[in-house]
Amino acid sequence: MLSHAGASGIIAAMKRLSLLFALLLTMLLFPLSPVNASAAAEVYAAVPDKDVWFYAGETESSRVFLLPRSYYVKVLAEGDPYCRVEYLVDEGPYKRITGYCRTEDLLFVDYIPARPYLMKQVTLSYSLPASGTGSIGGGSFSSVERTFVYYGQRYEGAKLYYYVLSEGTFDYIPAEEELVYEENTDYLDYLASRETMGGTAEPPAAGPNAAVIVAICVACAAAVAVAVFLIRGKRTAPPDDQPEE
Fold first, then answer.
1. How far is the CA of 156 from the CAs of 58, 65, 66, 69, in angstroms?
2. Each residue of 194-244: pLDDT tens digit?
3. Which DSSP string corresponds to 101-168?
4. What's the CA gap between 54 and 120, in Å, rounded?
5. In this structure, are strands 44-46 and 107-109 parallel, antiparallel, or unpaired?
6. Could you give the CA distance from residue 87 to residue 97 in angstroms, rounded to a whole number?
7. Cα–Cα distance, 67 to 140 (Å, whole number)
8. What global pTM score does this model have?
9. How far is residue 191's CA from residue 172's CA, in Å, rounded to a whole number?
10. pLDDT per residue over 161-172, tens digit each?
């Protein structure tokens, strides 16, 4: 027979094992979300078409310029219908700007592009107005050239403008034709790989962790072993001439 103290010890031990089992079961049923290795990484979105606008604010009236097709914006904050983005970098004559794009116009990618931004400068020539007949000199400086950092373009009616930076100032300059530049192709490869893998297929939901399942099985076996040990160890040994109950 078990003594009162022995029974109390068994009950206490079983309670501790029950708490351990409940904790492990909770981990199995409600596993912690795995940390996404790319959660803290930079997120980029490609500009797949020529009509993707860079906005100064979250309104259609705040359009600034059309982003160069095939290049990227860095996504600072996702939203609907606009997301906050960053374009270009603070290097040399270039200057980073922040604004907004319509989320549905962008192609979000899961890689860091080799050439995220169009690093382009344009040089334009300006002719000075002709002087009167009484002017002197040979006209050596009748035209000047100026170099600008190119960000994008827009049309006002039939007139084309570049949105540019020069000496810390952003503004529009008239242009005769659209800028020709080398386009990226990596986002096209990304689209092709998505189509190969089924396009919009969602990743499978995370199942129970195998290590947790093993731990629960071990805990269960340990609980049974400890309980048997406590029960057998606390029993009073029977006399030699009497059968064990």
1. 21, 11, 12, 19
2. 777 665 433 333 344 445 455 555 555 665 555 555 555 555 444 455 434
3. EEGGGSEEESS--SS-S---EEEEEEEPPPP-TT--S--TTSEEEEEEEEEEEEEETTEEEEEEEETT
4. 17
5. antiparallel
6. 5
7. 38
8. 0.63
9. 34
10. 999 999 999 999
Q: Which two tokens stand for residue 42?
A: 């930079």
Q: Based on the number of CB atoms within 10 Å of its own CB, is 40 exposed (0-12), middle (13-18) or buried (19 or more)?
A: exposed
> The tokens of 14 are what?
């079983």
| Angle, alpha carbons 174-176-178 (nearest 5°) | 100
Tell the residue number behind the tokens 């059309």, with chain if given: 66
d(CA 69, CA 165): 19
Exposure class string for 97-117: b at 16+ Cβ within 10 A, else e: bebbbebebbbebeeebeebb
